Automatic annotation (TrEMBL):
Transmembrane portions of the chain: 16-37, 57-83, 104-127, 133-154
This protein's record includes keyword Transmembrane: yes
Organism in which the protein naturally occurs: Limimaricola litoreus
Keyword Protein transport: no
Keyword line: Membrane, Transmembrane, Transmembrane helix
Protein name per UniProt: DUF2254 domain-containing protein
Length: 418
């Protein structure tokens, strides 16, 4: 249950308003600390350090932070729109969760609120001469923080939203999702085979039409233990389910267990990559596929994306066997990842859109050949099948005979079988 709470907190922390609220709260903490530590300030220090300039400093912060915040929001919106239109619309939400951008904006807004609150308090008898000194020192610290954040923001904008930055972010998220899945195969439960579901199990149906965004497996295990039941999840993370569709089968327990299981399956309107390695692969594939469109015509980007997808899929291992060996949640059954789906998610669209571009097909065949030597037999077999599909598309689309010959030389074994 503790890990479930941590995951929910982490999910909440990726929202901009949360960081704005926290840093704005720190502004009021700083104002309160100035009052608290005021009595510790020696007499006459105000004239020595020039605390009489405090009002001017606060005016500068209040006016400049409003302008900087507006400018930063304009830049952020422009970058997001550019990335969405040029690479993939799904990249927009990933850029929205960028922690650097959120922290920068929250700092600017927090500094603005700090200056306004300080100006208001200085017009009241709340601060005496000693408290003004501490407030002056805290204002200097705020200025140092602002300068540091602006420098960080400038450096961040140099690559933010570019093709390289976007693909690196998507690949990193895909790698993290795969590593998390491999550390806990089948979310720490058993690999679900359709024959594992008992005939006496009752279906749990979706109460809305939406995506399965996240599954809190620790809460499911706790609910099953409390009610002496078992949970068979048939709708994995990333599945789009309709209202009334079965998302799980429950054995044992009662209405309370159903409520607990339903609460542990988070559903929403949009698909996310939090626990969904396939979605990150699809985003990478969309970047490569869009680069192959006639309007962009950038096969180099597609070749780069193919290599990134190969690195991500290379971290896969069979959940059917591995999941049974390391079942942490013994009352939970989860549908494992299918290697065939991974291959289609990663390479299917580019094999179709790049069928007439021999350099793209050759790069794909080399990557698939490497994956065909993967120690996991299921992913190796899926890679060989995907290579045959890509080769078939290429032979059908390529009209120039030398290109067909180059393609055949890139995959001699497959071409011989064709």
């Amino acid at each position: 249950m503790f890990s479930t709470v941590l995951r929910k907190i982490h999910r909440l922390s990726r929202r901009l308003w949360v960081r704005v609220t926290l840093i704005s709260g720190l502004a009021f903490v700083a104002l309160g600390a100035a009052k608290l530590f005021g009595p510790m300030i020696p007499e006459g220090l105000s004239e020595v350090i020039g605390a009489d300039a405090l009002n001017r400093l606060l005016d500068i912060i209040s006016t400049s932070m409003l302008a900087v915040t507006t400018f930063s929001l304009t830049v952020m919106v422009s970058v997001h729109q550019s990335a969405s239109s040029r690479w993939t619309p799904r990249a927009h939400r990933m850029l929205l969760a960028d922690t650097t951008t959120q922290t920068v904006l929250a700092t600017f807004i927090g500094a603005y609120i700090y200056s306004l609150a300080a100006i208001i308090l200085l017009s009241t008898p709340y601060y005496g001469e000693k408290e003004i000194v501490t407030l002056y020192i805290s204002t200097l610290l705020v200025l140092v923080l602002i300068v540091f954040v602006i420098l960080r923001w400038i450096m961040h904008l140099q690559a933010f939203g570019s093709l390289v930055d976007t693909t690196v972010r998507i690949e990193r998220r895909a790698q993290q999702a795969f590593e998390a899945r491999m550390e806990r195969p089948c979310l720490g439960g058993h690999a679900l085979d359709p024959g594992d579901i008992p005939g006496t199990a009752r279906p749990l149906r979706a109460d809305r039409t939406a995506y399965v965004q996240a599954i809190y497996e620790d809460s499911l295990q706790a609910a099953a233990e409390e009610h002496d039941g078992r949970v068979y999840l048939v709708a994995p993370v990333g599945r789009f389910v309709h209202e009334g569709e079965t998302i799980a089968h429950l054995l044992g327990g009662g209405e309370e267990m159903e409520k607990a299981v339903r609460a542990a399956i988070h559903m929403g309107e949009l698909r996310t990559d939090e626990q969904d390695p396939r979605f990150a692969l699809i985003m990478l594939s969309e970047v490569g596929s869009k680069a192959l469109s006639a309007g962009i015509n950038d096969p180099g980007t597609a070749i780069d994306v193919i290599g990134r997808i190969g690195r991500v899929i290379g971290s896969y291992r069979d959940e059917m066997a591995h999941g049974r060996e390391k079942a942490i949640h013994d009352r939970l059954w989860v549908v494992p990842l299918d290697p065939r789906d991974l291959m289609q998610d990663g390479f299917g669209a580019m094999a179709r859109d790049g069928a007439s571009q021999v350099e793209v097909l050759i790069s794909m065949l080399k990557t698939l050949e490497a994956l065909s030597r993967h120690p996991d037999t299921s992913i190796a077999r899926a890679a060989r099948n995907m290579a045959h599909e890509a080769l078939s598309r290429g032979r059908a689309a390529l009209e120039f005979e030398p290109d067909r010959a180059r393609l055949a030389r890139a995959a001699p074994e497959m071409a011989a079988r064709h």
